[in-house]
Structures are given as structure tokens and as C-alpha cells.
Amino acid sequence: MFTLRFKEDQLRSWAHRYEYESEEMKRLAVDAGQFMREHGYLTKPLFLGLCRWKSPRTKPHCQRNQEDFVEAVTRISLSTSNERLKIKVLTLLNGVSWPTASAILHFGDHELYPILDFRALWSLGFESPPRYNFDFWWAYTTYCRQLAATHEMTMRELDQALWQFSKTNQGKSYA
What we know:
mainly alpha, 10 helices, 0% strand, globular
């Protein structure tokens, strides 16, 4: 199902080329992730920052969530071992679809989760993203976990490599 568009031994090289759009955006993601791992939930301000990092277009929708709902939903997601519940419950939040839910798990869960992103998927052989559902997300998560483990990379490094390769090459001919 997944076919890496470049040689696996280039993963680290692509990861090292990745740059956050700004230090502020890097801090948003890191701070939100650290808070979630320490406290087991997201506050609304951290949630809004992470949503802005992943998909700025969703800001008006994400702002409609009540603080206590953000906390309750993220607490459920980060505390369950049920993979389907873990991802699906996050989509109850206004403005959160599969990609943003995966970003919340990527930064905040103690387990390893990749970010579901059209760029990463392109680097894995998809011309356009398929319809997202649990089975696809779980296959993607499992594949990325295996790829990261094989190359002794963190999930963050793998995510950066896949994203950067696409940013550099999508729309161009590549080797």
C-alpha cells in the first residue's frame, strides 16, 4: 500500500533538511506535546496553537470548542489504549479532522504516531490523499512505526523526512 518515493537510506538526510516555518510554530508544537505528556490533556490555548500549526484554515472552527470539552476529549484520547477511540474521539472537536487528530497524537501521546498529511502520503506513493478512515490510518501508523524502527529514527524525524521530500519534490520529476 505504501511505496517510499526515495531510497530508505536517505530518510535521515531528508529529516535534517526540515525547518519549521518559525521558532514560534516549533515552540507551539513542542510546548503542547510536553504539556499533554505531563498532564494527559490539552488546554484550549494549547489546542488552538496546535491546530494553527497543523491547519491555520480551521482556526474559526477550532475556536468554537469550549475549554472543558477540549480537556475532556483530549483526556479520553490520551488515556485510552483503544486505538479507534484514541483517534476518533478527537474528531468530535470542531475543526479537527483526521490530520489534526493525528498531529495531536503525534506530539502528545506516549506512543508513536505519525502525522497524517498529504505531503507525507505523497512521499509514500499517493498522488492524492485517499479517503481517511480508521483502517487506513492504522495501516499508515503501523507502516511508519516499522519504518522508523528499522532506521532507528524517532517518529518526528520520520515525519519531517516525508514532509520535506514532498515539499522539495512534489510537482517535479524526481529520481
